[in-house]
Amino acid sequence: MSQAKPRKRDTYHVGNLAPQLLAAARQLLVEVGPSKLSLRAVSERVGVSSTAAYHHYANRSELLGELAAQGFRELGAALSRRAASASAAQKMRDGVLAYFAFARANPALYQLMFGPELTPEDLIPALLHARTEAFGELHRIIAEVLAKPVDSTEVRSAALASWSYTHGLAALVIHGVLPLPTGASDERFVEKALQGLSRLLDAGLRDVAAG
Description:
Strand content: under 5%
Number of helices: 9
Low-confidence stretches: 1-13
CATH class of the largest domain: Mainly Alpha
Largest sheet: none
Number of strands: 0
CATH architecture of the largest domain: Orthogonal Bundle
CATH superfamily of the largest domain: Tetracycline Repressor, domain 2
Shape: elongated
Number of domains: 2
Order of helices and strands: HHHHHHHHH
Distance between the termini: 94 Å
């Protein structure tokens, strides 16, 4: 008598189920969006019971929080990859480009990270930590650009302005409000945007000095 093949749900290893669920959630996020993402759907995608999934994620909000935390960790890692010998201008350009490229490569995840699906009550510790670390990496870039202590007032205000600008630029593009010119690379688009911002700030400073 031949031995029956085990069902898919019986073949997973408990120790690696959590990352499998998270990977499936990320795939479904791209396919159906956050509003239709559920633990049941993720469980079915992996081939396990909902009960098994609930052993790792207490509810849908926790799953989304872990997914967003993964995104912030990847964003922080992208921002950290910069040459120590680069000029201040190059570090600023590379930081903006790394952020922009991450958002463009992961639009569904990026929108979850900053979108309304996660309320303040849903911000699990892992998400708060990952978000703080990503913003901390931006602080370190700005500190190097300004040659100021990372905890200085100048760095904090400049980092906030930089994140707001870069986030806005990325959001406008991935939502289709600001389409990239035909044939334009991310690198060239970011360069032109930064040049425009620089001209605007220079004009404003001249007006302040003249007044």
